[in-house]
Design brief:
This protein is mainly beta. It is built from 5 helices and 29 strands. The chain is 8% helix and 39% strand. The protein binds 2-acetamido-2-deoxy-beta-D-glucopyranose (NAG) and calcium ion (3 copies).
Length: 423
């Protein structure tokens, strides 16, 4: 490449040297030798045959004393062969960073006559770096109520190489809930974005373990991975559930106040406050005979019960979780009769007196028995005890006729109340 003196003067890289050297060496200085080598070649590797490329013959080599003039000498010239050799480590990443093209420029100097030659060596990138994650483990908390389509930016990786040797792609381990989108910032760097595909349910699965892979497209491609722990956080999406819709229990009427009737049980599949249950009587079914422990669900009697007053109670209970979801159940309490009432005998009609000479079988009185208990406790047997001139004839259920059954003697027993008893 040949350039005019005016053009050369405009260049920034040799402002002092140029004005007085140019007239002497102008034809040779414009010679430009270019080489292209991969980075990281071992020391001593041949970059190119510099002497030959400058047109020197083997015979004139010792006399020309070809060498490199540079502040940072990456290269040297073999005194025997005149070849340009690698003389120190050539790490493209260290020398040029992320520059897409990495060129080292320097002068070769020859003597007899003194001359400068411009040499440039382009370092080609090799894929000697893998994409690296800043953090190889990260945790993501996602609520189970998150809508599908929601995006989560994940930690990105960096690859010191350039072009296709640098990071090109992210991949996520296959799973049913999450997919990955490769995104690009305005500076061209890539980052991964995870998208929720299908709804989560903490009650089914509360964590996911995913692997994020960052890849470059070098030859061969390199990759590295990061682990992602997705923790699904709870939403209050489950109401409490009673162990039964209807609880039935029987209770004798004579139990003491404070006796345990029953404990209702409710569960909630959610977590924390969302699963903390409190019990209460429903507004609709307020019943004062029973107490309810709002924490344990235990129902106890408040006062005394009386089968003869109320034979069955039906309570409606509510279980409420900390998020306000409600379930209801019914508790049916059957009161069992106890024999707590004595039978009574009532005289329906009783004549003021009976003649002591009345015929046997003479009607004396109509009796009625009564017992407030029920079932067998309410059955009353009516009979006369002892030796008396009377007998009882069953008239209909719980009614009896008392008739004479022998000779009466006013002088011995002046009234019939001296003869009867009931059981
Ligand atoms: C990542 O590299 C390893 C070898 O280091 C290879 O076995 C694996 O298949 C690569 N993964 C991907 C996704 O290319
Ligand atoms: Ca590299
Ligand atoms: Ca790379
Ligand atoms: Ca839940």
């Amino acid at each position: 490449m040949r350039e005019g003196a005016a053009q050369r003067r405009q260049r920034q890289w040799r402002p002092i040297l140029l004005p007085f050297l140019l007239p002497l060496f102008s034809p040779a200085l414009s010679e430009q030798i270019r080489y292209k080598i991969p980075e990281e070649m071992p020391t001593g590797s041949v970059v190119g045959d510099l002497a030959k490329d400058l047109g020197f013959s083997v015979q004139e080599l010792p006399m020309r004393k070809l060498r490199i003039s540079s502040e940072k000498p990456y290269f040297s010239v073999s005194t025997e062969s005149g070849e340009l050799l690698v003389s120190s480590r050539l790490d493209r990443e260290q020398i040029c960073g992320k520059k897409p093209v990495c060129v080292l420029e320097f002068e070769a100097v020859a003597e007899n006559p003194l001359n400068f030659y411009h040499v440039s060596v382009e370092l080609e990138d090799i894929n000697d770096h893998m994409p690296k994650f800043m953090h190889t483990f990260f945790e993501l908390q996602i609520s189970e109520s998150t809508k599908p389509g929601t995006r989560f930016i994940l930690g990105s990786a960096h690859d010191a190489d350039v072009g296709t040797n640098s990071l090109q792609n992210y991949q996520l381990s296959p799973n049913d809930h999450f997919s990955l989108v490769n995104k690009e910032k305005s500076d061209g760097s890539k980052y991964p974005e995870m998208v929720l595909k299908t709804p989560l349910d903490r009650e089914k699965q509360k964590s996911y373990h995913l692997t994020l892979t960052a890849l470059d497209f070098g030859q061969p491609p390199l990759n590295s991975t990061a682990q992602i722990q997705v923790l699904v956080t709870d939403a209050n999406d489950n109401p409490p559930v009673f162990s039964q819709d209807i609880y039935r229990v029987s209770l004798p009427e004579n139990v003491h106040p404070g006796t345990t009737v029953l404990r209702v049980v409710a569960t909630d599949q959610d977590e924390g406050v969302n699963s903390e249950i409190t019990f209460s009587f429903s507004e609709a079914g307020q019943i004062t005979q029973f107490n309810l422990d709002s924490n344990t669900g235990e129902i106890t009697t408040r006062g005394t019960l009386d089968f003869e007053e109320v034979k069955e109670y039906s309570l409606v209970l509510e279980a409420r979780d900390g998020g306000g979801m409600i379930a209801q159940c019914t508790v049916e309490i059957e009161i069992l009769d106890k024999n707590d009432n004595v039978p009574e005998v009532l005289f329906q009609s009783l004549p003021d007196f009976i003649m002591e000479d009345a015929e046997p079988g003479t009607y004396v009185a109509l009796l009625k028995t009564r017992d407030k208990d029920s079932g067998r406790n309410g059955d009353v047997a009516c009979k006369l005890e002892g030796v008396a001139p009377f007998k009882i004839i069953t008239s209909s259920r719980n009614t009896y006729k008392l008739v004479t059954d022998g000779v009466l003697d006013r002088e011995q027993k002046p009234g019939i109340q001296h003869y009867y008893q009931s059981h």
